[in-house]
Amino acid sequence: VTDGASKSSASPETLSWVGGKAGHLRLIDQTLLPGQLAFVDCDRVETVWEAIQALRVRGAPAIGIAAAYGVYLGVRQANVTDETAFFDRLDEVISYLGSSRPTAVNLYWALQRVREAAAAQQGPSVSDLQDGLLEEARRMHAEDRQICRTIGHVGADLLPDGSGVLTHCNAGGLATSEYGTALAVIFAAQDQGKQLQVFVDETRPLLQGARLTAWELLQRRIPAILICDSMAAQVMREGRVQLVVTGADRIVANGDVANKIGTYGLAVLAAAHKIPFYVAAPRSTFDLSLSSGEDIPIEQRSPREVTHGFGRSTAPADVRVYNPAFDVTPARYIQAIVTECGLIQPVSAQRIREVIGQHHSGT
Amino acid sequence: VTDGASKSSASPETLSWVGGKAGHLRLIDQTLLPGQLAFVDCDRVETVWEAIQALRVRGAPAIGIAAAYGVYLGVRQANVTDETAFFDRLDEVISYLGSSRPTAVNLYWALQRVREAAAAQQGPSVSDLQDGLLEEARRMHAEDRQICRTIGHVGADLLPDGSGVLTHCNAGGLATSEYGTALAVIFAAQDQGKQLQVFVDETRPLLQGARLTAWELLQRRIPAILICDSMAAQVMREGRVQLVVTGADRIVANGDVANKIGTYGLAVLAAAHKIPFYVAAPRSTFDLSLSSGEDIPIEQRSPREVTHGFGRSTAPADVRVYNPAFDVTPARYIQAIVTECGLIQPVSAQRIREVIGQHHSGT
After folding, report:
1. What ipTM score was computed for the predicted complex, to two decimals?
2. What confidence tens digit (pLDDT) does each residue in B188-230 have?
3. How many Å separate Cα B325 from the centre of its chain?
4. Which of A29, A249, A256, A327 is flagged as catalytic?
């Protein structure tokens, strides 16, 4: 389904726009890391949809940016000639991209933002409307870089010098335009001169921790220790970690957090070991239209991710599988949420509104 | 290192003694399941040692039985001619086999039992002493079958009809002579006509749950649902399981239980969800010489089990790995321990002594 993949030894960017208006979106194919650094070049919206669905690009913020570029590609390829056709096509493309993954709200946030930006333009030509979509995607892309830096800055003080940190899945540069959210906090603490040791959950079934987070940490020469997800409790019990920090895919009005499957269990285990549990995420991850985490749709993924996750069968052929991609961590387990707008602590509906603004509705 | 492996479509036995005094030990090579049912034929002690170390035979009770046969093989191959040489070689073989895996106490229990049985024989010939080793191994083997049946019978009432059960690793027929410990409880409840649904943790890094437990359950037509270890908390939160039952590799005087890595985390999660957590294990798993779980040696295994667990690399080549094979669950998290001597409930030093007998020292 991909338009093409090319290898490169250049410094890797999670996603980049190559060229001008006739250009294309280039993504690192994260399913091939760390063994192979290859790129997917997308000049059609279908390629972007597939890349999101197949987790070639993943991580809530990165999905949002990829989708914004995807909107531009989808409208461009339709060659619409009048404003009505433009907005019809725009809605069609937005609806299509929205179907790629159901849990991360940044996807809907980005699509909505692009839609609103287009609607806000008064009487331009179809060509200008189209150009405006690309400009908006590029603006979101640039903003995300700044947001991640700010999240790192806001959160760095939470990490004591010499501490052991546990993280799950990948909330690093590969999950964003660059730098990350949970890993941004770690990177910023490192930049402050702190010595840290990071325990990395491998994050079954798709091993984003082993494949992506370990890779990012090693690139920055941060001591990373890979563990299986089932070892986190023991690592806590042995006093090897002083805090847990993860990203988020959706945060609702009461502070409940949807994130990669396994996050909820970690939060319960952290509480049992009296270890603070932090979440780092941009404002675009908040969905204040939902009052509780119970309302978040949880993506169910293919059984084959569990039974054939490593290129060969690891279970009986006829076994049933339950494979939820996310879980929901209740706000009461979360010590603080790190955002570019400031620290949300305690995690309460009121404090969330204070920090990220009452008018923000998420979708 | 194996003497040879052969394929067969015969009904599989975890371990069997083939032939008479000149015979050999045949083991299912569990590292190849469920894709391939192959056997390792051991006629030398070195082959038994390698099979235990490499987890071709695994599960605390099965390790004990394999080791007992291994003692006979090791003495037989030495061709000793007098009693002194016999006992020297016996001690040498016992020490060697004891070095194969450090955590499961059944290994030491079995070796000690064989040693004591040999020492108890008054004035026989070396040939009779040697035959006595094989007889003792066969006796232990036969006893284990009966013990597992009894464990199932004792524990079956703990499982309400219609309940969801979560288990970790493999404490089934493949971990024993047949029938199992934790799975014996499930099998016995099924035999009572109860409808059960069993959630099976895949059990990284070596996937004994996905490979072995799912296979055993499907063979008995018990509904099995495979999950990643990181999904257990979510399955509990969704109300899908009413209890957890696992096996054990060593249980000490205060009731602390060493078992496959991930067990401790499950116990903490079960407590947080007010779900009872049960352990099923034979009397030979108890080591009353240790007062607390802190004293149990925890086997550390190769990083490659984590980074190359599926035949290909799933992490950066230079990443550090922490890979403890076991963890220790404090007695306070365990609702009851099911043994062939009866139910230990509450799990306390006093109740353990009452049920399994004060004179039993484990090693």
Report:
1. 0.93
2. 999 999 999 999 999 999 999 999 999 999 999 999 999 999 9
3. 13
4. A249
